[in-house]
Each structure stands twice: as structure tokens, then as C-alpha cells.
Amino acid sequence: MSKGPILIISGTNRPGANSLKIATIVESIYHKLGIPAELYSLAQMPPELFSSTCYATKPASWQATQDRIVQSAGLHVISPEYNGSLPGVLKYFIDMLKFPESFEAKPVTFVGEAAGLWGALRPVEQLQAIFGYRNAMIYPVRVFIPQINSKLDAAGQLNDPAIVERLESQVKGFAEFVARFA
Questions:
Q1: Where are the beta strands (DSSP E) in the chain?
Q2: Each residue of 142-151: pLDDT tens digit?
Q3: Distance between CA atoms of 35 and 55, rounded to whole angstroms?
Q4: d(CA 88, CA 75)
């Protein structure tokens, strides 16, 4: 089976989320380089997935997302920091995906963004542990965006060229990493 595009995951369902703005920027970098990539926001999760019965039986509406994860060439996860950790909805998203096939030998990389000085270092490290446990192939170059509220302009674009350069470098390197597993 051929692999699909790299799937960029915006790690929250919060309206107007900065992680979605960063994910959109990352998607544009992939497209500028001619690398197939698609964006998935956790705001797209079907509401019925939040029923307690879903731990046993997933709703039919979840299958398309599950398929996108399994068929993706790799995952580029953008996570905000909520209370010193990853958003609960991101952990729930991960928990709802099939084990082991969703992340088994799947290339994955991370971007963290936060209002504080550390740029979501803790959530990214927590995600690395979770994805490592699930046997993902973790690309070691991470990008952290501290003080996110001062790094985005009114149009949702980054105003810090150094961060843009780091994201471009990460995208290029991750695409090469993913190609090794194709």
C-alpha cells in the first residue's frame, strides 16, 4: 500500500488556536517545497467520539480519521502547552486511535508553542514518550515557540524570521527522514 501525505496535526480543538495557525504555516512550508501534506485539526473530531461508549466501539464517523493516520507517510504534531502539559483532547485523540497500527514505525516530529518562556518543552517531551511507547520513529529535531502571542501578527503569520527558518529546516529534514521509511 502506498503511503499518503504527511499529516500535520493541530493538537487542540480550541477555537482560534495558535497551534492551528502554526500548523497552517507548517502546511504552507510543505507545499512550497512540493511535499504532499495535509492538515488535521482536532476541532474536526466527530462530536460522537466523546461518548464514553467509544472506548469499546468507535463511531463510523471516526473511521476516515483513523484511515488518514494509518495511511499517512508521517505525522507532524503541533502542540500547545496547557497547564504544563499537552491538551487533554490531544491525549484523547491518541487514545482513540487503533493500537498498534496507528503509530507503529510511523515517522513523527513535534512543534511546541506556548505563552511562556519554554515554548511547550514539557508537552513535546510528554508526546515523545507517548509516541515512543507506541513504537513511532521519532525525528529528533523539535521546534519550540515561546511567547507565542508576541510571535504571531494579526493575520496569524509568524513575525520572527528565526522561527520561520527553524520550521523550514525541520520540514525539510523531516521530509528526508520520512522518505527513508517509504
A1: 6-10, 37-41, 74-80, 107-113, 137-138, 143-145
A2: 999 999 999 9
A3: 35
A4: 19
The CB density around residue 154, as the number of other CB atoms within 10 Å, is 6
- Measured at the CA of 31, the angle between CA 146 and CA 101, to 5 degrees, comes to 80
DSSP alpha helix (H) spans, 55-160: 63-71, 88-96, 121-133, 148-151
pLDDT at 34 over 60: yes
Average pLDDT, the chain: 96
Residue 123 backbone class (left: φ over 0; alpha: ψ -120 to 50; beta: rest): alpha
Give the pLDDT confidence of 17-31 residue by residue, as tens digits.
999 999 999 999 999
CA distance 34 to 170: 15
